[in-house]
From TrEMBL:
Pfam families noted in UniProt: TctB
Source species of the chain: Agrococcus baldri
Chain ranges passing through the membrane: 34-55, 67-89, 101-120, 126-142, 149-168
Domain DUF1468: residue ranges: 35-172
Protein name: Tripartite tricarboxylate transporter TctB family protein
Keyword field contains Transmembrane: yes
Length: 172
């Protein structure tokens, strides 16, 4: 009986010690947010530079082949700059989890899928490779249920084809 009382006392003491642990210093996430913002700015600037290498159209239209990629690259650059500035000015976040191996693996796998998608698109039509990309990303991120794993890639591909292939007449 005495052993049980002592064991409960030890367990209660351990719980109280955990609950009353002194505040640990805030784990700074500023550097991480600034670096992420800088990386996004670099991606946006690269898109802007590559967009300027596209051939200029001789048509009398203000929307040439450089317009859309330049708009996207500019938006990416501005949003990355905003992330870096907000990250630098915001107070550090307390108890922020470090990136886990699973999340890093998922990110690298998704980037790999995008590279494979870009290569496969040269050999197969947009309507074939795009649902496979969406399905792959959903599977990596834990998509469940066969209905969603079938319907979402079809709907996303159809929406993208409708907007870019039919409305904007971008050759896909």
């Amino acid at each position: 009986m005495t052993a049980m009382v002592e064991e409960r006392t030890v367990q209660a003491t351990e719980v109280n010690d955990l609950e009353q642990a002194p505040d640990q210093p805030a784990q700074s996430t500023r550097l991480r947010e600034i670096l992420i913002g800088a990386g996004v700015v670099a991606v946006g600037a690269t898109v802007l530079l590559l967009a300027q290498q596209l051939p200029a159209e001789a048509a009398n239209s203000e929307f040439g082949s450089r317009w859309w990629p330049s708009l996207i690259g500019g938006a990416i650059t501005l949003l990355g700059l905003a992330v870096a500035i907000v990250g630098a000015l915001r107070p550090p976040v307390r108890d922020c989890e470090e990136p886990g191996a699973t999340g890093i693996w998922q990110l690298l796998a998704i980037l790999g899928l995008i590279v494979v998608y870009g290569i496969a698109w040269r050999f197969a039509h947009f309507l074939v490779v795009t649902p496979l990309l969406v399905l792959g990303i959903m599977t990596l991120l834990g998509g469940r249920g066969w209905r969603s794993l079938v319907l979402v890639p079809v709907v996303v591909t159809g929406a993208l084809y409708g907007v870019f292939g039919l409305l904007l007449r971008v050759p896909l």
